[in-house]
Write a structure and sequence with these properties.
By secondary structure, this protein is of the alpha+beta class. Helices cover 38% and strands 19% of the residues. Strand 10 and strand 11 form a beta hairpin. Helix 1 runs parallel beside helix 7 and helix 10 packs antiparallel against helix 11.
Length: 509
């Protein structure tokens, strides 16, 4: 039977990213109808989003202009994540930090890590990326004449989640003809083989579709509740299980930092994401190590005021993922597929990638489903397992032991076999591309180098000859001068975005 009717259950960023990816791919077949079903009774979780550079390629392919992203979504540029106090304050000081930036830490394209390991005191590892001074000086990664989706350093975005969803919604409906209805699901009807037959609505109506995309969030109404795909629990690997979230107005006179702040706390960390109109902030913590009252007190200290009566949202989190991304005629995306705490903005990363992958693999006939689903499930498992490793890396290599939480995440939490093997290897050898055999290890050599050596991981320094030492020093020196000069030549992000808004307002007159 030909697949003609596709249903996406759930809106939000996951649902509408899926709608745009599917709409783009299905333009080739006018017989295919895509329907997004959204319930007005279920709130969207989005609290403000940080992204990774992959999102630029997707948005451009959808036909969305970069100016619309920036203007409609209160967006700012994100060039890195700044990790503060993830190391011992006794050894590294109370203001220690490092960057995981989107550009490789290779001065002039050359990997100087061999030399750096024997000369750590000379240069802060994060400075080896061209992003360092752009971030530290709050610069915009683009010039005023930079083409859309291009910058002098690599970048992603911070944006208002609700406004981003609205932008995706408008584009999917207008450009790709996505059918959009508001209905609450009363019952999921199954065929005898366990595949999904149709949906019954609270309104009394019902519809049958040929293929289903579950974007129903943590409820996982299709892949979990109906199709019964098991959830692989990772809460023993990732201990942070709760978040407090609060939006605060942006100080109109304050600089807009072009990175996400990740500030370590006694039992977790605080995110701080700058938008043009507000800041999205949140405290991620382990409820095993911090009570709700203690968490609110820590969050209040960060903001410098009592948040007892503020509009603070509490969000429970459960780390893990569905054993299968795709089962029979149902695929899960977004929170319905899996979740890990928001440390490296992996939620949209995985959703965007998997939505694009599934859109290109929707079978022509339902009989072809088994051919496609096996490889997609294998890829999904690889993605999630390696993402959990990378998130855990930030905790397990810290030298902090000042609270029970930091003792547990560094000494008592189980590591995957592969992460254990890699860390053992990297005490003697520098991470290299050959250590990342899978294409779906989303965080590769450059990311691991940034985190490992940003946190002063004790890899044994290799013997480096005088010729390589001289060459490395020259590369580092030239790189630092070039990076400083580039940052000085770029506008402050606040000024760049202000001028964009003025230009757009003038153009609209």
């Amino acid at each position: 039977m030909k697949i003609k009717r596709i249903a996406i259950l759930g809106g939000g960023n996951a649902g509408w990213l899926a709608a745009n990816h599917l709409g783009l791919e299905m333009l080739r077949d006018p017989e295919i109808e895509i329907t997004l079903i959204e319930s007005k009774d279920i709130p969207v979780i989005g609290v403000g989003e940080g992204t990774v550079p992959l999102i630029r390629g997707s948005l451009q392919s959808f036909g969305i202009s970069e100016a619309d992203i920036l203007l409609r979504c209160d967006a700012t540029f994100k060039t890195a994540i700044k990790f503060s106090n993830w190391m011992s304050t006794e050894k590294y000081g109370p203001d220690n930090f490092y960057y995981h930036s989107f550009d490789a830490p290779f001065p002039g394209g050359f990997d100087v890590t061999q030399y750096w390991l024997g000369n750590r005191a000379d240069t802060y590892f994060s400075k080896l990326s061209p992003t360092y001074y752009v971030a530290e000086r709050n610069r915009c990664p683009k010039r005023t004449d930079s083409p859309p989706y291009k910058g002098l350093v690599n970048y992603a975005y911070h944006f208002d989640a609700a406004k981003f969803t609205s932008l995706l919604t408008d584009n999917a409906k207008k450009r790709f003809g996505i059918r959009h209805i508001y209905e609450t699901i009363k019952q999921v009807q199954l065929h005898a083989d366990g595949s999904i037959k149709g949906l019954r609505y609270e309104s009394g109506g019902s519809e049958d579709f040929d293929f289903y995309i579950d974007c129903s969030g943590f409820a996982s109404l299709l892949i979990g509740a109906a199709v019964k795909v098991p959830f692989i629990d990772k809460t023993q690997q990732i201990l942070t299980d709760t978040a407090l979230a609060l939006q605060v107005p942006t100080d109109p006179d304050a600089a807009l930092f072009p990175y996400t702040k990740a500030v370590a706390q006694d039992a977790g960390w605080i995110w701080d994401i700058p938008l043009t109109t507000r800041r999205g902030t949140g405290l991620v913590y382990s409820a095993q190590h911090m009570t709700d009252d203690e968490a609110l007190a820590a969050f209040s200290r960060y903001h410098g005021k009592d948040l007892e009566n503020a509009n603070v949202r509490k969000i429970p989190m459960k780390a893990g993922y569905r054993q299968k991304l795709w089962e029979k005629n149902c695929v899960a995306l977004g929170l319905a597929q899996g979740f890990v705490e928001p440390l490296e903005a992996t939620s949209l990363f995985v959703t965007d990638f998997c939505a694009g992958m599934i859109a290109k693999k929707i079978p022509y006939q339902s009989e072809e489903i088994p051919v496609y689903q096996k490889s997609c499930n294998e890829i999904s498992t690889l993605i999630w397992e390696r993402i959990f490793d990378f998130i855990q890396l930030h905790y397990c290599i810290s030298d902090r032991r000042d609270t029970p939480f930091w003792c547990d995440v560094t000494e008592r939490v189980e590591l995957s076999e592969l992460l254990s093997e890699r860390l053992a290897l990297w005490r003697y050898a520098i991470p290299q591309r050959a250590d990342f055999a899978s294409t779906f290890d989303f965080f590769h050599t450059e990311s691991y180098l940034s985190v490992l050596y940003g946190m002063d991981f004790p890899t044994r320094a290799p013997v480096v000859g005088e010729r390589l030492s001289v060459f490395s020093r020259e590369k580092i020196s030239a790189h630092l001068e070039k990076s400083k000069h580039m940052a000085d030549a770029l506008m402050p992000q606040h000024q760049w975005l202000t001028e964009l808004n003025k230009f757009a307002a003038k153009k609209a007159m």
